[in-house]
Amino acid sequence: MDTINRLLKKQPPKRGRRALEESGQDDDAPERADPLFVRYVQNPKGTQLGVPDEWLQAPVGSFFAGELGPKSQRPFYGRMVEEVS
Q1: Where are the chain's structural domains?
Q2: Per-residue pLDDT tens listing for the chain (85 residues)
Q3: What is the pTM of this model?
Q4: Alpha-carbon distance 73 to 77, whole Å?
Q5: Fewer C-beta neighbours within 10 Å, C or N terminus of the chain?
Q6: Rg (Cα) of the chain, in Å, rounded?
Q7: Of 79, 81, 85, 51, nearest to 66 (Cα)?
Q8: Among candidate residues 66, 38, 68, 30, the one with its CA nearest the CA of residue 54
C-alpha cells in the first residue's frame, strides 16, 4: 500500500530535485541575481534602476543612495532616441 501511495503522489520536477540535492538549500530562500547586472525599467509611470545590494555597500553605493534628480517636464513618448535641435 505504501508503494502505491508513493507512486500516486505528484513527483517534483527533475530539475528542482537535482538542484535541491546539489545545493542542499531549502525552497524558502529566493535565488539571488548575479551582482554584475542592473535592472533598468522605463515605462509611462517613470524610470527605475535596480542595483544589487553589494553595490550599495561599495564606494559607488553613495551615488545610487543619494537624492533623486529633478523630474523631467517632458513625458516619455516611447522613443528610444529623441532628436533635440
Answers
A1: 2-64
A2: 888 888 888 777 666 555 656 655 555 667 777 888 888 888 888 888 888 888 888 888 888 877 767 776 776 666 666 667 6
A3: 0.42
A4: 12
A5: C
A6: 23
A7: 51
A8: 38
- d(C-alpha 46, C-alpha 75), whole Å: 9
Distance CA 65, CA 56 (A): 7
**N-to-C CA span, the chain:** 80
Q: Are 55 and 61 within 8 A, CB to CB? A: yes
3-state helix, strand, coil in the chain (%, to 5): 30, 10, 60
Please report, as a single letter, which amino acid is at residue 10: K
